[in-house]
Every structure is written in C-alpha cells, then in structure tokens.
Amino acid sequence: MKIEIRNGRIVDPKNGVDARQSLYIAAGRIVAIDGAPDGWHPNRVIDASGLVVIPGIVDLSVRLREPGFEYKATLQSEMRAAVAGGVTSLACPPDTDPVLDEPGLVETLRNRARALNSAHVYPLGALTQGLRGEQVAEMGELTEAGCIGFSQADAPMHDTMVLYRTMQYAATFGYTVWLRPQDAFLAKDGVAHDGEVATRLGLPAIPSCAESIALATITRLMEETGARVHLCRLSTREAVGIVRAAKKARLPLTCDVSAHHLHLCEVDIGYFDTNCRLVPPLRGTRDRDALRGGVADGTIDAICSDHAPVDDDAKQLPFAEAEPGASAVELLLPLALKLAHEDKQSLAQTVERLTSSPARIMAIEAGDLGAGRVADVCIFDPSAFWRVERSALKSQGKNTAFIGLEVPGKVRYTLVAGQVVFEA
Amino acid sequence: MNHNPQLNRDGELHHLLTLEGLPRANVLHILDTAESFVGIAERDVKKVPLLRGKSIFNLFFENSTRTRTTFEIAAKRLSADVINLNIGASSTSKGESVLDTIDNLAAMQADMFVVRHAQSGAAHMIAAHLNATSRSHIHVINAGDGRHQHPTQGLLDLFTIRHYKKDLTRLRVAIVGDVLHSRVARSLIAGLTTLGVPEVRVVAPKTLIPTAASAMGVHVHNDMRQGVKDCDVVVMLRLQNERMRGALLPSAGEFFKHYGLTEEKLALAQPDAIVMHPGPMNRGVEIDSSVADGKHSVILPQVTFGIAVRMAVMSILGGT
Q1: Domain with CATH 3.40.50.1370 in chain B
Q2: What would the pLDDT profile of B56-107 be if each residue is shown by its tens digit?
C-alpha cells in the first residue's frame, strides 16, 4: 500500500519541518517528504490542502480499562476513541484488575491490542506487586513482556524505603520509574484542592504541599539512586518550580501535565460537578498559570490526556464518593490547540509537546515524520471548530467537564503504520 | 449539571440547598414568613392548612433525631403528610444508589424531600437530578450535607439574631469551635454576610479553621479571648468526639480550657451579648453549663424558632 498525503502543512518539530509539502508512505513507513521517490505510483492520494499533517500523537496516559473494568470501557471502544483523536501511540497505566504486575497479563493486553489493528499500546508495569507499595514487581520479566516503564499509577506509596529500593532496582537496569508525586498521608481522604472552593463547599482537601513534599523526596532519591524518573500529572505551581530547578541541576527527570489542568481550576467544580473530580485535584488559577508557563518554557515536557473513562453511575454520586477521572483522549489535540491559541505558542512547539517529546520519554520509535520512520500520522483541520457533546465522543466514557465547549481542530485522518485507521 | 438549581426562572425559591448565593430578598422573605408562624405554636390548635394533601418525605441518609423531629413537627403544623425514612447505611449496604432511592420515592408522588446526607453536595445532586428529569416539581430541602451547608439551621440562627438584635448592620458575631467540619458555620457565615453583618469572626485553633476561611468574608481568630471581645453574638459549635482521635486536638479537656465558653470569657463580650448553639451541646467541652443555662443563652428559643423557620421554608416551597 502506497499513500501520498498531498499539499498539507507538515509540522514535524523534531526535524524542524513546518512547510507545505507532501508525504510519501510505502510498506508502512515514510519513504520521502517533499520530493516523490523514483517511479512513485500511489494506491491512494489524500488531499491535505488546508489541513495540518503532524506525527501521530503520543499520549502518556490512556486508561483502556482492560482487564477488569469492561463495564466502564473496552479496549475496542477506547482504541477507537484514541485514533479518532489522532493518538497513534499510548502508554496505559497498570491500575487494571488484575494489576499489570505479571508478564502474562502484559502479553495478553498487547496481543489483544495488536489484534485490533489500531494505535500502538505500550503498557506501564506495576512498580510494586499489586500496586500495594510493599514488594518490588518483576521489572525484568515485565520489560521483556513489553513494559516501557514502571508506575505506581494513583496508588499510594506510603513507605519511603520501598520507594528508595524500587528506584535503586530500576536504576540498576536502566528502567524509567513513572511517579505521580503525592504524599499519601497529606492526600488521605482529600478530594479537592485545599483552597477557596473546598473551603466553601466543605470538601475534604489536599494541600499543595502533598505534591511538593513528595516531589522533594523523589528528587532527593534520584540523586541518591541515579534512577531516571518521569513525573506524571503535575498540578501545582510549587512543583513546576521544583522541576525547573531539578532540570537545571541536570537530574534525569521529565514530566507531564494533563490537558485538564491546563484549562480548568478548582472554581470549575462549581456546584459539585463530579466531572471535575480528578486526580490530582484541580487547583488554583495561579497553579494553572504556572503549569501553562511550564509547558511554554519546556519545564513540562509533554501534555497528556490522562484519559479515564468512567460510567455514569460512578459519577452520579456525591462529589467525594464519585470515581475520579475524565474521558479525554479525543480532546487532547483540541485542548492543546486551544492552549496554543490562548497562550500564543507556535503550532510547532505545541505539536512537539504531543509527539516527539512524549515519544522520547517513552523511548519509542514515534513522534516524528523523518524518512524511514513508521508512518504514524495525524491529519487535522485547524480551522474546524466542533462542539463537545456526549454523542460526539467515541469513548465509552462520556465523563468530561468540557461538554458544550466549542473546540478547535478536527481530526480528518489517522494513520498507524501506514494504514488509514480513522477518517472523518 | 453544573448550575445552581436552587431558584426557578422567576427567582423564586424552588429548592433550599445553600445560603451561599441566596439573594437577600429570599432570605428576608423566609425570615418574615417565619415571624407569622411563631404565634401558631402558642395557639390551642397548632395547625394551619397550607400544605394539606402534600406528601413530605424526610430522607435521612445520616441519622439525626433532633433535626428530623423539628422538620416533622413543622410539616405536621402545616397539615402535610410526613413520611420518615431513616435510610442510614442500610440502603448503601443493599446496593441501592441514592438516586435510585430518590426515583422510587418520587414515583410515590412525593411533593418535597427533606434530605440529610453525610456527603457534601448530596442535596445539590438530588435537586439537579430531579430538575433534569420529569420530576422537577418536587422540592428539595437540604437538612445538612456533609460539611457543606445546613441552610435551615443558618436561617433559624439568623432569625434568632434578628429577634434579639434589631440592627444587623452594627453587629459583631463570633462563631467558635470546629469551623472546618461545620455545615452550620458555613450556612451562618453566608447568611450573615448576605444580611450585611459587618464583622463575622471565626474562633478556633488552626487545625479547625479551613485554609481559605478569610475568602468567606470572616476574620480569623485563634485566641478565644480576643475572638469574643466586644461581640454581640457568640455562636458555639458542636465538637464531635471523633475530632479528638487524630491530630486535630489533643483532648476535650484541653479544648475546653482554650475555647470552651465560660462566664469569664463571655464577660469579654458585650454586656447584652447572646449565646447560641445549634445543639446537641457537649457541656464541659465547648460550653460551660452555667453559660448554657445562663441569662445570655438563647439556645432553647433557637429550637422554638427553628420550627417556625422550617414551616416558613416548607410553605414557601409548597406555594411555588
């Protein structure tokens, strides 16, 4: 199958490309940009006039809910949602049921995902067995089974010695540890940011220092162990400052933020909107501004969807009892484009935070459109606005605070390994 | 979902969920209506036929004898039919969700739900659910949701203050004790600021004051003596025993020593200060018996006014 993507604006930040060019794909790989190879006879031509052609989006956190939570969502529904959002590679956290702490489970998940012929799925293995925070998981076996890193997901890590040992062990073999910084005791029972809204609504709160104290522990243990760490879902201004300093000190550290935390803040909880029940909690406007600043100056490497489909029953509960999380994989690109527009960031830089930068964090071959690369491509219409509605979402989870919002950027085609897996 | 479902399109009260953001006109309307009900209790026949034929369900997902009883009395004095349901933990143990319970009771032709729940936001959730379905004619009264609001308590506190202190725009009010966990405090603070009380203080150790308390328009005091000094109204909050189990407070005794209302501390307030308490009281923990039973105490009149205020709320909702 030979595909030619003609006349689109190709934005490939890693290779410094931002120009109206054509892309030539054969046998699942990119064979040339701009000039057609000799004897080129495409099977299909995609007219990308007026459209933007970018590397397939790499999403650092998509919960597929399998195994164990098929009533919330299935691999099939969420993979369809992913490619509809232009996402071609995704990391899935290990907090399934059973937890991804055994190689067999990881292999099964990867095989099931492969059979769907959709986005590439890269599981994160559990850092500790059962995510209980007690016993280090079989990192070597899990890596062989296909895990690209090890994570505690949102499960608490109470024991600093266990954290220390798991980081030491990971450092021994060069594995990356993915951690969401949150002190388990300071966050215990909390459901909202410890600020004005939690005060007014009487919601159990999580102070900002729950994040910064955990982060201080992690960075100190990085110095101690030499472990490479990816920090997940920063939410506070303090954390952005700590990461900025740690990067200056050349710690092998990367970090991401969810698209929600760049657009929403505690005030959006309004009258107990459970779609704003997220982990980490939505924080203050100054935190949101600092996170945006972190994305702009590169302190924050990547923007992810933190996709977490939740069934309606689990959201139609009093705020504190509602299950946290938001369905977002289809909104990642539109929300990033909206951010770029609001903060006057270049399209290239925004695309970099969605593609080559997360690909580097995951250490996978993805995120750019260089010749010879696997042809994972997202083609979208930057001038098409659409309204987020339940019916417009392919994900089984309709839980999003953005219902009713007009967002820019409609994905027209998604290609995975040179095959068109989505078009609209 | 993310809207204030408390008022209808004409600005009339449709549910009573919170005093925060409830317009001054609505608050005054409730208080004025309550005035007219105070006299009814003193008659031989303590009933008016305003809600005859209406079914009011007291839905207590969290147990409370006192509040449920005052709502029941208020509803009966308005001639409504009252059905008490102490759901407590039983419905959740049977696996039925709150909204399933609501749908079932709505199907029994309920006109009004009086809801108490241990979680903040429960009454909002129920009201939003009813508004979104064909049951939008059913009214919801929040009888306490977690730490969030207890609006009828706030209203009866306002009624009591207005009864004893004619000009609210010159008052100093101190609210003392466990503000962090108190829905009573959140309601009263909102009501007092709406009615233009110029100085509302909260008095407690730092562990029992919510982080952003000053954003609610109150002055924070950690010293009890400074906190009650020159106050016209001192509202003591109930301190629950479970607060002594963690790191919030060391003991009831130490709390009483610093924050318990004694004659000696009360003497720092205005000579004609009134002392209030939402009940049930812990004598010797937050309040000394001599103060609770003393000449400044209006704790029992609060209970009496509470029935009139709840009658007012129910009759206003039932009339829309």
Answers
A1: 24-149+304-319, 151-298
A2: 999 999 888 889 999 999 999 999 999 998 887 555 556 678 899 899 999 9
Contact: B1, A318; criterion CB under 8 Å? no
A306 is catalytic: yes
Give the CA radius of gyration of chain B.
19
Provide, as residue numbers in chain B, all residues whose Cβ is less than 8 Å from the Cβ of A274.
1
Strand A17-26 and strand A29-33: the pairing is antiparallel
Q: CATH fold of B151-298, please?
A: Rossmann fold (3.40.50)
What is the set of domains in chain A, with CATH numbers?
A: 2-53+374-423 (2.30.40.10), 56-362 (3.20.20.140)
Is the per-residue pLDDT at B1 higher than 50?
no
What is the ipTM for the molecules in this complex? 0.94
Retrieve residue B229's tokens: 């000094």
CA closest to B183 among chain A residues: A202
pLDDT confidence tier of residue B46, bands split at 50, 70 and 90: confident
Q: Is the domain B24-149+304-319 a CATH 3.40.50.1370 member?
A: yes
Interchain proximity B121–A196, CB inside 8 Å: no
Residues B141/B115, Cβ–Cβ less than 8 Å = yes
Q: Measured between CB atoms, does A275 come within 8 Å of chain B?
A: yes
CA dist A317 and B125 (Å) reads 7
Residue with tokens 């969810």: A258
The pLDDT, as a whole number, for residue B161 is 98
pTM assigned to the model: 0.95
Split at pLDDT 50, 70, 90, the class of B2 is: very low
State whether residue A3 is helix, strand or coil.
strand
CA dihedral A361, A363, A364, A368 (to 10 degrees): 60
Q: CA-CA distance, A120 to B266, in Å (whole number)? A: 70
DSSP-assigned states of every residue in B142-201: EEEETTTB-HHHHHHHHHHHHHH-S-GGG-EEEEES--TT-HHHHHHHHHHHHTT-SEEE
Residues of chain B contacting A401 with CB distance shorter than 8 Å: 2
